[in-house]
Design a protein that fits this description.
This protein is of the alpha+beta class and 320 residues long. Helix content is 57%, strand content 9%.
Length: 320
């Protein structure tokens, strides 16, 4: 259960903005954070510290993994309490802040100065050591978008181009992102160049995050054609299915997932296809089949990180 207390030294300045503790095991240490961005800026100004904002959602399994594995790590607890002001914001509740910073993925960890000016951001799970290292690098100007752009002036390194494109993508700057992804594709040595595929997939993902489903569908379908016979074909197929699901074309999505499961027996793609099939059945409103499919997923893949999610979905569908 979360413990709440008023921040020392602030009196009754803001009653609703409180210090809370990350949830973990009963005997585990827990990192403290604020839940109000305005208060985070006040604390940062008072302490002359940067701010880290963890943008999360209730449904994000990676966000929960970060809370469980990083915010209960003593190195991370010490770092967050000493070096920065740490805030956690539910992006689907405090939409003003998440929209202002054009958050495009979860979790997103935004590093700003004390005034809320962005220094850079990280998207996705990082281990405690990687998280701390990346924040410290950004504070020194290492690995930031500005630093990478400066480095690119005398470089033709495609991996560097990808880093730049990815940073633009997660800042919601689709024009600049696509320009850099296109540079990667244009400079590929062969049609089935792996970095070109990653660039194609990233473009599709960018359109997906911006809810441009038709555009993302075209990109993923092109990947399936151009990268036939490689693992990228399976990845593209899964994303075609996901796009059909978002467009509420559930039967088409289910057909794609079944095809993936049949084609990639015993591998990660079959595992993902089975989970996505259950989700599509849930979204379609076929409760009985969705429960059966989630249960089958748990039985077939007991060591998957998604077992907890699947079991929770079964409970919800049963009304428990």
């Amino acid at each position: 259960m979360k413990k709440r207390m008023l921040l020392p030294g602030l009196g009754l300045l803001v009653i609703s903005a409180v210090l809370v503790f990350a949830e973990g095991a009963a005997d585990a240490p827990k990192a403290a954070y604020v839940t109000d961005f305005a208060m985070a800026k006040e604390l940062a100004a008072d302490g002359n510290k940067p701010i880290i904002v963890d943008f999360y959602t209730d449904w994000c399994t990676v966000c929960k993994k970060f809370d469980k594995e990083v915010l209960t790590d003593q190195k991370a607890i010490d770092f967050l309490g000493r070096e920065v002001v740490f805030a956690k914001i539910n992006a689907e509740v405090d939409t003003n802040v998440s929209q202002a910073y054009r958050i495009r993925g979860y979790p997103t960890f935004l590093l700003t100065d004390a005034n809320g000016q962005e220094i850079d951001r990280m998207v996705g799970f990082l281990s405690p050591d990687d998280f701390i290292q990346t924040v410290n690098d950004y504070r020194r100007g290492v690995g930031t978008l500005i630093a990478l752009l400066d480095k690119s002036k005398d470089s033709r390194e495609r991996k560097l181009f990808f880093e730049i494109a990815d940073k633009y993508k997660f800042r919601g700057d689709s024009k600049n992102a696509k320009d850099w992804f296109d540079k990667i594709i244009a400079s590929g040595a062969a049609k089935q160049d792996s970095l070109s595929d990653e660039a194609f997939m990233a473009i599709g993902d960018m359109y997906r995050r911006e809810k441009q489903n038709e555009q993302s569908m075209k990109v993923y379908q092109q990947v399936v054609l151009d990268f036939a016979g490689t693992n990228f074909e399976g990845k593209g197929m899964l994303y075609v299915g996901q796009t059909h699901r978002r467009m509420k074309e559930f039967d088409k999505a289910l057909s794609i997932y079944n095809e993936v499961m049949a084609k990639y027996k015993g591998g990660t793609f079959e595992q993902d296809g089975e989970l996505y099939r259950a989700i599509a059945l849930r979204d379609k409103g076929d409760t009985a089949q969705a429960i059966t499919s989630f249960a089958a997923f748990v039985g077939h893949w007991p060591n998957s990180e998604d077992v907890e999610f699947a079991n929770e979905e079964i409970r919800k569908l049963r009304g428990e």
